[in-house]
Amino acid sequence: MIGEGPVSRRLPFFVLGLGVLVISFGAILARLAQEGGLPSLAIAALRLGIAALVVTPLAWGQSRTVLQSLTRRQLALAAGAGFFLALHFAAWISSLETTSVASSTALVTTNPVWIALASFVLFGERTSRLTLAGIVVSLAGSLMIFWSDASADSGGRAALLGCALALAGSWCFSAYLLIGRRLRAGMPLTAYIWLAYGMAALFLLAGCGIAGVPLSSYRLPAYLAALGMALGPQLLGHTAYNWSLRHVSTTFVGVVTLGEPVGSAFLAWCLFGEAFAPLQAAGFVLSLSGVYLAARGEAR
Length: 300
Prior knowledge:
Blueprint: H1 11-23, H2 25-35, H3 40-68, H4 72-95, H5 101-108, H6 111-123, H7 129-151, H8 160-184, H9 189-211, H10 220-244, H11 250-256, H12 260-272, H13 278-299
Helix pairs in contact: 1-10, 2-10, 2-12, 3-4, 3-9, 3-10, 4-8, 4-9, 5-7, 5-8, 5-12, 6-8, 6-11, 7-13
Domain EamA: 18-146, 161-294
Transmembrane segments: 12-32, 38-63, 75-95, 101-123, 130-147, 159-179, 191-212, 218-236, 248-269, 275-295
Pfam family, one: EamA
């Protein structure tokens, strides 16, 4: 884990870049797990459950005092963050069943719009003009990616249900980031991610029980893909986002996540043959350009 003390000015940007790279594999591993027979809700439960179990010794070893002295407010915030994180993964992973990787990741990363709006309404935050321009440009790129994929003859993968689930996942992730910022400000990183991931895993396990979704008797490759999601995109990728919340704004963290569709769509092209269309390529360029503008605005 990265230390909690003073850091160089560039380190948060490097950590976020690494997080985007790792988390781009999330959609690919989810698709592989689905092809191995794992239901989407089970994939989400295993991803968060394994991640919470792995981080448990570190969290209690480094932050035992903090975890033993949690206030009711902190527990309520942890439950809220975990609830929305669980909804995010349940909705987004389910969207991959009916729409393409490019469309799903493009829609699920529209959260900067909802974060900026909520931050303005709830917290009175202001964003720089460059950051605002980065949001607009990045969202335009994401919309171009979605429009190109939705207009293609893709055999129904761009179904309305999948798009709606991905968009709902974006709303839930926005709520998770906003609640997480309040909780994260008062505790170490390891304690925070153990609480958030653990709460989310409990909600997802309860969902599996209610829906009658078993967690056993699937093929080994499916479980390996779920394990990869827990160790890579979840522990490394999302933890990088969580660590960065103390050093850069929530809005900027949300903007950086717009790099995910680029990496995921490229991997989907390499592994699943989901070819790029000219409009998609233009969208990828716009998305990355928006991240650059937002980085410049945040640095100033």
